Amino acid sequence: MGGQAGAVIGTVMGPVLTCMKLRGLNDLILYGKCYSLRFNEEALRRDRAAVFSAAVGYLSSGAPGFVIGLDVSFLLSKLVNYFH
What we know:
4 helices, 89% helix
């Protein structure tokens, strides 16, 4: 039950905290941050691996597979980025 409550709280609080953090930035700095995130190959590789492995884990084993898939993708992306 605690994990589900944490997921719900995180889903609600994530966008709120992001808006609070970005509120004071001017447009130029905000666009610069978005541009640098969009073309960061390491972050894109990590995000794609997380989505793929979470989907495979969820389809194979449900919620535990989802969590294990995310953990495995994190470890593998760190390993790939270390040797890349």
